[in-house]
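Read as amino acids, tokens; as here:

___
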Amino acid sequence: MLCAAPVGARASVHLQDALAHARDGGALLYRESHWQYRQGDMVRRLVLYRCPDGRAFARKTVVERGAPHAPDFDFEDARDGYREGVRSTPAGRWVYVRPRAGAPMRERRVDVPPNGVIDAGFDASVRQHWGRLRAGRELAQPFLVPSRMDFIPVRVRPGAAVDWRGMPAQRMTMRLDRWYGFAAPAMELTYALADRRLLEFAGIASIRDAKGDHQDVRITFPQAPVLADAGKLQQALAAPLVRDCGA
């Protein structure tokens, strides 16, 4: 599991908020708060997933120990106890999954391909191959699916240049790169041309609904990351997680 040491008062901390709406009706499903900071020579990220009223129900920590496209991470949803992640040890990389609270943790050692993508590392991979994608060339990479404890091939296809809320942007789609990929829903991503930051994600999210089904969402990042107080980050790292977003 990933643990975060206390954040230094002088640490450079950035915060970006996001909103997740249902694609079929636009109802606000949950909020996200994305923190990024450095701890020693490692880049760390924290994501708090919040109920519409602001209470946190899930937390993800991400640590770049080497290649940005294949970080360690740990995700936990307090509503049902689901947990998944990847950790580095002297014996190699391990993926782990706990389907619900009280269930045993399953884990397996995985060999990460040189171009293998893990969790939030997808964003770093897009920026790394930005020139290729902007030139209209597709990108095929293996992507880790923790629940399967294995990598699956995905293909990123550049789409049209668009105007996103007044900003020039590039739209892309990501789909399974297998013969049955036509049956799997594509994920649509929109990146700002000016700074290559993610503006919008539309597709099946990792956050599930009360029935345990993955939700079809549109996640928007209306504002660029801003400097934030290290004390606020420390509070976010220790924030208790609620088990129900209801009253």
